[in-house]
Structures are given as structure tokens and as C-alpha cells.
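Standup notes
- DV: blocked on the single-chain target, sequence here:
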Amino acid sequence: MPYDKKRSLTSLFCLWASIQIPRFAIPVYIGASTLPSDFGLTASSAGLLAAIYFPVYAAMQIPGGLLSDRVHCVRLLRISTVGLILGTIGLAFSRTLLIAMLIKAFAGLIDGLAWQAMLKQLAETYKENHTRAVSILVTGQGIGQIAALIGLPILLAWFSWRETTLLILLPLIGSSFLLWVYNSSYPRILQPHGKNVLSGIYMALKHKYFWPIVVVAGFWNGGQFGFLAWLPSFTSDVLGYTTEITGVIPGLMSLGVVIGSLLVSRYVRDRKKTVVFVLGAITTCLLQLAFVLAGNSAPSILWISSFLLGGLFAVYFISVPIITGYVPESQTGAAIGTMNTLNFLPAFILPWLMGVVLENQSKTTFAEGALSKSAYLDAFLLPCIFLAISLVGGALYILIQKKRS
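- DV (later): unblocked, structure below
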């Protein structure tokens, strides 16, 4: 079968969407299943379980990027899908918090490898429409998040969280089959010489715009996953939603990602991507603050701001074509890996810190029942504060660089 870029992108779209379901299962299980009582979780340990995925995911980005520069991307993706299927089965049968954390850490490693291989393939096959191709992949991510955040609570009304975990293997197996069929003839374009294997990292790090873009992107990313980690339990504890609908508000956030990605792919041109990225980050910071303020007086704004936060998060992914524009095509994997390593450290820190704030500020413990509304709002304020600091710091960094030059 000759290589077909559209069918190949479709298979990557389906695979990345199906990966999101186990990726976001833990936040749903924490808010809508017996998992906290099964493992005896506190708020901080629940936050740690939800966040442990991300430091390993981050640590895999540079090795994954280097591997994707030198190993056939489809081979890496096939290895990833097998590993993820095995890890999902392991989570369903885990009996202790430690085992569950190790499995989620393993999932972070595997997903990091898969994401790098996908981005590398898009960088090679969609040179002139890279922003559009990445946005289409992100649309798949949003659809997978919706399936996880809205669909899993519905399944949990009928099945245990262990049985539900086994059910989410079905889309993984189906997308793995599509990957095998439609990517088998994907050609390898370029491969760097061994002596230049780390040059993509160096070229990205030395560029004057790398650090401000990556720091802002990192806390933007961390805030998004912090919200998604705690929104399911927030809707249960504070808004009093039943198990079946605890995923509605986080699902709206994921729906926003889908629509935002479609708009980005259609209207954002590569030459304007940096301006759109900065404006999106500023607006996100303001919306996060609006979410916190609305929590005390206007619950309807929670729905609107959640949807808009998701839509703006589609703009975050513009950081990928921004960074790859700084390095030769043969070294884009290393550059993207470096960026993602730094980006996902806040995705570990913020959900965990939000759990610490919840435990310290609430009058009840996680095991005793619902946490307080004020504790949740204090926790949701953290991403806003960190993103604001990164924006101000990035602006000052660029001004200092301009003065020096």
C-alpha cells in the first residue's frame, strides 16, 4: 500500500485520542469511584497519584525525541501501544497505591515516547502545514479527554473502576490496528549523523526565544492538568453532582480543546503563531482568575470559563511549531523533546501542590468526605498565579535580551 498522508494522520489522530482515556482515568476515579477508599488516599496522595504520570512523561521527552530522530517512528509507536495495553491491564489488577503509582509512571514513559514519535512524523510529512497538522492531532486529544471525563463516570455507574479500566482497552486495541494498517509504508525522511545527535537540543536552548516560550508553555500546561485533575472531585464535593455527571465541567474543558484546535488549524498561520501564543496565555491567566472568583457567586460562569480554558489550551500547542522553527528538520525530535521535558515538570508540580493546598485548607480530610469550597478555590488559584509570574518573567527576559543586543 503506498503511503497516504491523510490516512496516516487519521491513524495518529485515533491513537492519540484513545491514549487520553487511560491518561485521564485516575482523576475521574478519584472523584467518582471507590479507588480512594480502596487505596486509603488522602488529598495529597490522591494528587500525587494523579500527577506521578507527568514527571516520567517529561523525563521521557528528550530520550523520546532523540530516538524519534534515529528510529522509525512507526516502530516506536507500535512498541508504545503494546506497553500501554499491558500497563492498563496492570492498573486494573493493582492492589496497592505504590503499584498503581508505578503503573501510572510507566504509562507516562510510554506516552512520552508515543507523543515524540507522532510529532516527529508530522514534522517530516507536513513541512508547510505543521501548525495545522499538530492542531488536528490535538483535536484527537480533546475528543479522547471528552470520552474519558464524560464517558468514564457513566461507566462507573454500572461497573467498578477495575472493570472500567479493562473496558478502555477496546479503543486502544482498535487504534493500534489502524496504526499498523495505515502507517506501515511511512518512509523515513532524514536522519542526523551520530556526532550531531545532541545538536538539536543545543540549537534550541541557545535561541533567545526558547526560554520565555517554554516557561510560559510549561505553567500553562501544568495549570491545565491541575484543573483537570481536581475538577471531577470539585463537581462532586462542591457542586453536588451525581457520579454520572461529575465529568460534565471537565468534559466541557476538553470540548473546548476540540473546537479550539479546529479554529487554530483553520485560521492561525505559521507567521502569526508567536503572537497568538502569547495572547492565548494572557487570556488563559485571566480566565483562570475568573473561574476562582465565579466559584463563590456565579456557578454558570464555571461552565463558560471551563469551556474557554479548553479552547485556549489548543493555542498552547502552537509552541511545538514555534520551537521546531529554530532547528533543522533532522533534529526536530531533540528540540521538541527538550521543550516537552521542561513543559511537563509543572504538570507534575501543580496538581500535587493543589492537593497539598486542599488538604491544608479544608476542615475535613479526603477520606472523611467532601472537601471545602474555599479550599478548592484556593487550589484553583495556584495555576493562575504561576502562569502570571511566568508571563511577567518572560517579558522581562526578552526586554533584557533586547537591551543586551
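- Follow-up: The two ends are 53 Å apart (CA to CA).
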